[in-house]
Amino acid sequence: MCRWRAAVCRFGSGVADLVAAYLASFRSRTHPLSVRPRTQVVTGRRWAAACGVLAAAAALGAAELVAGALGRAGSSPPLAVGAAFIDLTPVWLKDFAIRRFGDDDKTALLIGLGAGITVAALGVGLLARRRPRWGLAAMAAFGLVGVTAALTRPAAGLMDAVPAIVGAVAGTAALALLIRAARRPARSDGPRPDKTQPDDPQNDAADDGRRRMLLIGAGVLGAAAAGGVAGRLLLRREDVSAARAEVRLPAPASPATDVPPGAQVRIPGMTAFRTPNRDFYRVDTALTLPQVDPRAWTLRIHGMVDRPVELTFEELLAQPLAERDITLACVSNQVGGDLAGNARWLGTPLAALLRRAGVRAGADQILSRSADGMTLSTPLAAVLDGRDALLAVGMNGEPLPVAHGFPARLVVPGLYGYVSATKWVVDLKVTRFAADRAYWTRRGYAERAPVKTFSRIDVPKPLARVRAGRVAVAGTAWAQHRGVDAVEWQVDDGPWRQARLAPVPGLDTWRQWVAEWDATPGSHTLRVRATDGTGATQPADRVPPFPDGATGRHSVVVTVT
Ligand SMILES: Nc1nc2c(c(=O)[nH]1)N[C@H]1C(S)=C(S)[C@@H](COP(=O)(O)O)O[C@H]1N2
Ligand SMILES: [Mo]
């Protein structure tokens, strides 16, 4: 550990020396960019723009290499900037992204970021063509953006600034090198090469210059790529999939109730009652998946408790475990949307852990924190009211997938994910809503957010064409922890009719429904609404997901021929 630290210090002072020498070269005018701009003759716009892109590649490659060497994926400047962007994104845009791109929202963000970086790099190159120092300064400014983004990540340490710093140094150095190489061999006042004259010696010089430019450009690109690849490979050390494969989950002390055979409505195109892990929706703010080694993992329970608890993964597996079927839903889910999934979770009851810690009077919130610094708040009362709130380690018979919170996450039936389902959880603080706020509640989302009653038509699909006659209409409804007591469906403005409800193992999962429709030719609108266990029927008025979940009735238009 000490040796490591010494190496880091040496590395840091090395970087500082480099920067100092670099700056000194300006003063002594030996620097390639110290040529006075007016006498500077640089090549055409295209090459200058390419210089910018190559220099940016060098910056990113170097930064990636350092992020990899440090084993800190999140400190990679583009990822840090992306993560900062996610945090700064207004709620409406986030909703839009989740709605528009769904599980691919992060890919969309990274593509957008890549485009932005490319445009900025082109700009830096063009700027450097006439004003080398400005180009240099712009490159440094981008480095500063990277540093700021990395340092403002919630779980960041000072070391997270290093990749962006090294990247900025590498980027400016590469830019200087490239621009010097791009300088035409002829001076501006000398004769220009005459391309129509094959024997003109100026042409040879120009060709030589071009060859050198291409060589240097290729060298920079190669080094950048090598750095990037090496960085990514180094980050594999952090990968926890091997550790995950070694986890042996104990049998539950309290097994799940059997799922009744009829829970799955057997119609082509129908949603699976149990969502396979690979199909389970994913919503989180993590641009890079936290890699949490179970051997190093601990959960701390502290705050307004009599006896703070610290639990290792081994100790967690030794607790009595319960297995439960619970449907998770996201507050960003729209009417008819699919940001919900049903899994069989294995975990220890959260209430028992909290009682062991001894919750003090006056507390009303659990503020949970994940390994990547994300915070979620959960109403304490919901966790203690007897429902199956779990500190989960297993999902559908395997350890939690890394994308779903390995090694441990919270699952609380009946509450939207953003107030209950903390993935990669490492810390539970028992506190008061008046004292602490979490990521989403700070952004105006509701503190108390029970899942709203929801129903959806899964078959037929929107805009489907079906044959006149008997048509199966089926779907999924949920009102976790209250249960779905009725589902009604309607054709056009006809009467509401009862659908047949499939059996369910309990109140905490979604429920499938099915009906037979005597379809007549023409275009028809099918509509659905559910009634929960308290007797409340889904309202017709449409409200958006912000701040506590969407309402409205799902409908599909089908053509009957
Ligand atoms: N650490 C962490 N946990 C999180 C989130 C997050 O962004 N970070 N998102 C929450 C939200 S909004 C939802 S809907 C659920 C989604 O869980 P899933 O991705 O396993 O489906 O996780 C919750 N837990
Ligand atoms: Mo969510």
Overall description:
- The radius of gyration is 30 Å and the shape is globular.
- The protein is α+β, with helices and mostly antiparallel strands and 561 residues long.
- The chain has helices at residues 2-27, 45-70, 77-88, 91-101, 105-130, 132-151, 162-182, 201-235, 241-246, 313-318, 350-357, 380-384, 439-442, and strands at 298-303, 309-312, 322-329, 340-349, 365-370, 375-379, 390-395, 398-399, 409-411, 425-431, 454-459, 465-466, 469-478, 484-491, 497-498, 500-501, 511-519, 522-532, 555-560.
- A hairpin with a 2-residue loop joins strand 7 (390-395) and strand 8.
- It folds into three domains: 2-238, no CATH class; 277-443, Oxidoreductase, molybdopterin-binding domain (Sulfite Oxidase, Chain A, domain 2); 454-560, Sandwich (Immunoglobulin-like).
- It is built from 13 helices and 19 strands.
- The protein is 37% helix and 20% strand.
- Residues 34-41 and 186-191 have low confidence and may be disordered.
- Bound molecules: the ligand Nc1nc2c(c(=O)[nH]1)N[C@H]1C(S)=C(S)[C@@H](COP(=O)(O)O)O[C@H]1N2 and molybdenum atom.
- Molybdenum atom binds next to loops.
- InterPro entries: Ig_E-set, OxRdtase_Mopterin-bd_dom, OxRdtase_Mopterin-bd_sf.
